[in-house]
Amino acid sequence: MTQHDGPRSLHGDRPHVGELPVKDDVDRELRSHLALRAEELEAEGWDPAAAKAEATRRFGDLETIRRDCESLARRRDRRVRRTHGWEAVMQDVRYAIRSLTRSPGFAVVALLTLALGIGANTAIYGVVHGVLLRPLPYADADRIVTVAERGQRGGRMSVAWANFVDWNRESSSFEALGAHSFSTMTVLGGQEPVRILASGVSEDFWRVMGTRTAAGRLTGPEEHREGAAGAVVVTRSLALRLFGTPDVVGRPLEARGVPATVVGVVPDAEAYPAGAELWYAIEVTPQGDSRTAHNWSVVGRLAEGVSVDRARDELAALTERILAGEPESDAEYLAAGVWVTGLRDAVVGDARRPLLLLLGAAACVLLVACTNLASTLLARGTVRAREFAVRSSLGADRSRLVRQLLTESGVLAGAGALLGLAFAALLLRGIRILGADVPRIEGVGLSLPVLLFTGAVAVLTAVAFGLLPSLRLTDGGQAGTLRTETRGSSAGRSPVWGALVATEVALALVLLMGSGLLIRSFSRVLSQDPGVETSDVLTSSVALNRLRYTELQDQARFYGELLPRLEALPGVESAGLMSSLPVSGGIPTGRVQLDGDPSNHVDSPAYVVASRGAFDALDIPLIRGRLFDERDGPDATHAVVVSQSFVDTWWPDVDPIGRQVSGGGMDNYWNAEPPVFGTVVGVVGDVRWRDLTSDPDPTVYWNYAQRPARIAFGASLLLEAQGDDAGPLAGPFRLAVSEADSDIAVEVRFLADQVAGSVADRRFMLLILGGFAALALILAAVGIYGVVSYTVARRTREMGIRLALGAEPGDVRGLVLRGALAMVGVGLLVGLVGSFALSRVLGAFLYDVSATDPLTFAAVPVVLLLTAVAATWIPALRSTRVDPIETMRAE
Amino acid sequence: MSLELLKGTLDVLVLKTLSWGPLHGYGVSRAIRAATDDLLQVEEGALYPALRRLEARGLVEASWGRTDTGREARFYTLTPAGTEALGAEMATWDRYVAAMARVLEAEGPLG
């Protein structure tokens, strides 16, 4: 306040400007003037009373002047307060920066710690916001629901067309109901054939989703009727890929073998289902009246004021009524009820739990970081206690010192948050790649709400790690510091230190335990044999233009000619065709009749159509009999190969070779009258079709040359390399297929990626949680090292005395180690209890590993303990390198 | 004879007066009177809103002190910003006077 000191510091009793209330300040000044004026007039010879009157007269309008002065003085006060507040903050900030640059080591470690902690939280919150919280891109999306049938065993089933039609006609809960499918198809007519995900939609689908077009229009009623000319809606990016321009309305193309005209373009963001790039009207082809063929997904827009529950109740009652008249024999294929789910839950429901778990883990990392910093600041603060004691005795009050210390934390947290944003941006880039399978991951980034979150976290962090040290340091008890500070030998053993170290250790243990369990689980998953050899295999999804291959046998003939050509390519070991890929998430299944006996049918083995080469390419072992060969021509009896588990399940005690099966899957032989039988010619090893953690489905393989209907919907070519490296074959593979038919869109992939993709979500979680655990371990080690070093430094004198009195260095080291490990031990115990408590949460993410897996629970604490010992060892060693005389003199 | 004070010139007079050293309000009014031989008629009270306004603009600073006769008074000091403002005002004033003088002392139509 020196800038306000008077021009002549005469007396101590005058008030400071700004201390007086404005009213008094002005009043005093005006009265002072009148008194001085009267004094001068008296000196000129006026008598006192007249002088007073004359002074007032000459002054003018006293009241107006007083009011003007008061209002001007108030304005000044406000201005001064504002600048003072700001100046004080800036002064604190400058002071904080100076004091941080004076200990750059501490500043760097603290900044990194904070950047990692805040960055991890920012990144995960970025994902949580982008995936779970960000509004869906559909108009009024809160009213959109998905509707599915509930199977007899409770699972979700797609909806039968006839049920959809009845719901649409009779329910009153919905403003609109729409059906849609989702399938891969080849689109021709553009610059080159492309294979895309497409959706057939019913008339009201667009009303449900509230879709807006970027150009043209959506399909209308005239296109949603039987026999109408083909009309399609495409995304902007498909328009660009096909025609190189978004201006495509009116252009002809050919989708799934049907000529069509583009009538509209929609923005990519509004695509539903996610990934679909083209939509066509499903009513063009008759959908029949089956209530057992579950082919459709259904979305609905709830009518104003209708709840999800009410819609569910209405549809359930409706479904029960319309299914009442269905034949008993179909009962097990009919809906037992309905599922109605909010669209957001349907889209991201599965991602919620893992993401929230990761957010919790990130919060743990930040807590470890805060604990770490709190203990370091406390240690530093004890060193600085003298500085604060001096400032305190010079008149700085406690709140001032607390504010100063909190400003230091704030500066650290602010800078840490900025660095953390850079770290988060890096992390998010990795996450978008790793988590490519997480729904809506593409929209994840450092958006404004995420930045606000980071700001809030930075503030909380600053308070969390700054408050405890600043309160303790400015504690009245520290007033004695000036006298005793350097003598304190017990500071390092105070309960606060122990609690901080124990907290760090406990949090780190919980995170390590979690990632330990995930690692164990992941290795169990990977150790599951898919039943095929994928490492040297390339694959491409293919489909033939049905306009040009009108007969199924034409398709079989085409592949019959293509496969030998592929096999003849240099470097190719074998080539094959298969209707499904292993580990691809799902597999068509169908009822099979055994030995021509209608009463002897089995549910529901997998139904696969394959060429002989497919077994070779995938190294599916032949166990008995033979594979398909040239004897199995189109006119011969259908040959069937079954899997070992099929035999184990239905023919455990009989020789399967030569037995007969019929039925199988949804093709033109499925319900043939009389049934078309196949004869079992061989038994092969089991394949996991769904994922590595699902048991292999019992499987029936049919020969594509005899039963090609399934491959008309699309199939996968498989190409096995002679060596281990299939990469160089990709080019010749693509070329050979295009040469055979330029209408085929070839996109060659490594089959191994299919397996990797099937565990992508597990790997995603493992890598992130594992990363966080590693981070926590490092931070905890740094924290323990810091606290122990500090303790040792503080107790140098004590160590010196002990050594001087004849203690062995080993004893002294032991003393330090024991002290530190006691704190670590408490942390480990707490962490173990916490891990047990949290095991239920993690259990859902584990495969074939108990959430309280003894191995993990034994090994992880040991790892942490060893880390702690290592972190303690260096400072402990230092404690015995003490020269007793030197240290005692130093004090 | 006495002159009406031109509008807005009181602030300059106050700043100029304070440029010789810190003064209380009464001292300022006395100094102006003395310097102008009472030619300028300033209602004494009008000085105080001017002082407060200058203080609010950060051109002067105030503190309580005592006069030589032991009376309590509010003393004003020019701030660096005040010194700067005074310089600017004086330059403006000089140009104004010069311009007026050219017109008033011209012996025929200008230009």
**Portion in strands of chain B:** 15-25%
**Low-confidence region ranges of chain B:** none
Radius of gyration of chain A (Å): 39 Å
| H/E topology pattern of chain B | EHEHEHEEH
Terminal-residue CA separation of chain B:
35 Å
CATH superfamily of chain B: Winged helix-like DNA-binding domain superfamily/Winged helix DNA-binding domain
Structural class of chain A: alpha+beta
Walk me through what this model shows.
The complex is a heterodimer of chains A (891) and B (111). With 891 residues, chain A is of the alpha+beta class. Chain A folds into 4 domains: 94 residues, no CATH class; 184 residues, no CATH class; 306 residues, no CATH class; 194 residues, no CATH class. Helix content of chain A is 51%, strand content 15%. In chain A, β16 and β17 form a beta hairpin. Chain B is of the alpha+beta class and 111 residues long. In chain B, 50% of the residues lie in helices and 18% in strands. Chain B has a 3-stranded antiparallel β-sheet. Chain B has a two-stranded parallel sheet with strand order 1-3. In chain B, α1 crosses α2. The longest helix of chain B is centred in the C-terminal third of the chain and has 25 residues. The mean pLDDT of chain B is 83. Chains A and B meet through α1 and α3 of A and α2, α3, β4 and β5 of B.
